[in-house]
């Protein structure tokens, strides 16, 4: 349906507006936004600001009042809505699994609608269950009620991915899980997206989740007006205004350190030093900082050489005192 089949395609929203009948003001008012191909863009904003409405206009579960939507260059409003939805993965917090169908049947739903042969669907179900870390032989024949909340959400994500759509819309897909399961699902999902490079719009209330998963974050005000749209590190480094700063909270520097890896930092000496605390190359600078603080030292060693506290502060453009005293 879209130009490239399974890898992400660009999404363009142009002056998109939704005015629900009988409401005094539009729920979404004149939103223009470009979502680059293969990126994960997170919508963050207060309850009722129009995140879900904006998302549902993209797969036409809600019809826009005015404006344009293009996916991979194609005008979505000119397409058949059912046909469109078969090519846009959709995962929501309430999961929406069919209770009287098995896990395999739930995941195979869209491929079946698309007329895939049974053997190909079965193969895809196995592959997806493995992808979301559910052992196929244990889970494929269970019913949703026989799964934990986190397992159901994984099946929801697998189902959204089933037909390998270039675009995925995800509305708080990990919302109903406890913090540990949620973190686990986020990590798995981040790993998956690195391989898949779908174009994903992801709605969340949780700014930490937005930073962790987003290539870009759109911070929305009421009626989906865009307060800031940029990469997590750019937003953390320079929030556009007090409204954006209020989402970030007090510890912007620590959050920025969490986004950078040890491997990104210039080394003070090019050889590892076995006498210093050791940090892995793929650890975050926040982990490196924690290690230095735990050992009461201003340096640690990675496989590529010795890192200093001063270099760490310089990486986030912060005076040393800010990171150590001001934020911990
Ligand atoms: N079907 C509808 N009819 C009338 N008003 C609606 C309808 N759906 C949503 N709204 C209103 O539109 C506004 C935006 O709702 P929406 O669900 O898009 O917000 P949201 O940012 O996703 O909120 P939340 O974070 O609480 O899920 C709200 O004021 C809501 O009451």
Strand content: 15-25%
Q: Give the spatial strand order of the biggest sheet.
A: 6-7-8-3-9-10
User: Which architecture of the largest domain would the CATH scheme give at its second level?
Assistant: 3-Layer(aba) Sandwich
Rg (C-alpha, Å):
22 Å
Keywords: ATP-binding, Nucleotide-binding, Transport
Pfam family, one: ABC_tran
GO molecular function, one term: ABC-type quaternary ammonium compound transporting activity
EC number: 7.6.2.9
List keywords for this structure.
328 residues, alpha/beta, Rossmann fold, CBS domain Like, four-stranded antiparallel β-sheet, 15 helices, 19% strand, globular, disordered C terminus, binds adenosine-5'-triphosphate, EC 7.6.2.9
How would the blueprint of this fold be written?
Elements: E1 11-18, E2 28-35, E3 40-44, H1 51-58, E4 66-71, E5 74-75, H2 81-85, E6 88-92, H3 103-107, H4 109-113, H5 118-131, H6 136-139, H7 149-161, E7 167-171, H8 179-196, E8 199-204, H9 207-213, E9 216-220, E10 226-230, H10 232-237, H11 242-248, H12 252-259, H13 285-295, E11 299-302, E12 305-308, H14 309-315, H15 320-326
Parallel strand pairs: 3-8, 3-9, 6-7, 7-8
Antiparallel strand pairs: 1-2, 1-4, 4-5, 9-10, 11-12
Helix pairs in contact: 5-7, 12-13
Bound molecules: adenosine-5'-triphosphate (ATP).
Explained architecture:
The chain folds into two domains: 11-249, 3-Layer(aba) Sandwich (Rossmann fold), CATH 3.40.50; 255-326, CBS domain Like (Alpha-Beta Complex), CATH 3.90.1280. The chain has 15 helices and twelve strands. The radius of gyration is 22 Å and the shape is globular. With 328 residues, it is of the alpha/beta class. Adenosine-5'-triphosphate binds at residues 20, 23, 27, 45, 47-53. Belongs to the ABC transporter superfamily. InterPro entries: AAA+_ATPase (IPR003593), ABC_transporter-like_ATP-bd (IPR003439), ABC_transporter-like_CS (IPR017871), P-loop_NTPase (IPR027417).
